[in-house]
Amino acid sequence: MEHRTFADLPEYLRQGDLLIRNNAAVLPARLRAQRPTGGATECFLLRPTETDNVWWCLLKPGKKLPVGAVFSRAGGFVATVLEKDAGGCARVSFATERAESIVAVANRLGEVPLPPYIARDGARAAARATDLDRYQTVYADRDRQVAVAAPTAGLHFTPELLETVRSAGVETVDITLHVGLGTFKPIASAFVENHSIHREIYELSAPTQRALFASRAGRKLAVGTTSVRTLEDFLSTHSEPLSPERTYTGEASIFIYPPRHFRGVDALITNFHQPRSTLLCLVAAFLCPGSLEGIEWLQEIYRTATTREYRFLSYGDAMLIL
């Protein structure tokens, strides 16, 4: 176990390594609105449906917004609740005032879905521009606003660091995983095996597929647990690239916990996660593939991290597991 700064990362990489990143950009998905009675409403865009401007959302206060309820935002939209599922999500239709997509409205009026432990309150408006910039990786594809939370392991990279990595002969490729709120859903069951894991859409371009299956002397290094989940799900059903120009779209439902072997990742950059999270399960499995010993090792690492006052969660510190 070594304690370094993130800028030292190139010292641990070597020519021929492959750095795999999640380039999903974060949508300003939190929309504040009003009910006809004047009551405040918060609508959180989760994922689109196949119908234009119809999305699955989280609504607050949910009990005051039953099926058929209407809420609106001046200069933005009028929304109607079409359906509610057993998990508390609502299917909502948006009629926009400027014939825009609701994504365009969100970019004009929405707030970045920061984790709840980052307070904004009265400073919300002043901080919006900063949050739009800082809660994105420097390599995020701004045309791929498909995430409601940042793939936070990538927040440590700067353009200068990435250039240093490439100059050392390390290849970089991107995957796109639509990070959802389910990523942060705590494990409530007594046994890990009984936890109902969330599902997330992901995309692998043809160049990324070719890089994954190419013969190489170096290692495959994943930036973040979202990248690991994407690769392991894809490689569980594919042993070669698809057609040369075809992007693969899948839905990851894989739950990774000890003991597990990994098919396509040799090293991992990840942040420090909260207790009872599926992310901790993945990291414990990665520390000692095929064994339960990673659990004890992870506990030791976290004891050291708390003693040395490492920062946890989205804007916290990171570890490199080789």
Architecture blueprint of SSEs:
Elements: E1 18-22, E2 25-26, E3 30-34, E4 40-48, E5 54-60, E6 70-73, E7 77-84, E8 90-96, H1 102-109, H2 124-134, E9 145-147, H3 159-167, E10 171-177, E11 200-204, H4 206-213, E12 220-223, H5 225-235, E13 248-252, E14 267-271, H6 278-287, H7 293-307, E15 318-321
Parallel strand pairs: 1-10, 1-12, 2-9, 12-14
Antiparallel strand pairs: 3-4, 4-5, 5-8, 6-7, 7-8, 10-11, 11-13, 14-15
Describe the structure.
- It is a single chain.
- The chain is an alpha/beta fold and 322 residues long.
- The chain has two domains: 6-26 and 134-321, QueA-like (3-Layer(aba) Sandwich); 30-110, Thrombin, subunit H.
- The protein is built from seven helices and 15 strands.
- The strands form three sheets. Strands 13-11-10-1-12-14-15 form a seven-stranded mixed sheet. The protein has a six-stranded antiparallel sheet with strand order 3-4-5-8-7-6, with helices on one face. Strands 2-9 form a two-stranded parallel ribbon.
- It is globular.
- The model has no long low-confidence stretch (mean pLDDT 91).
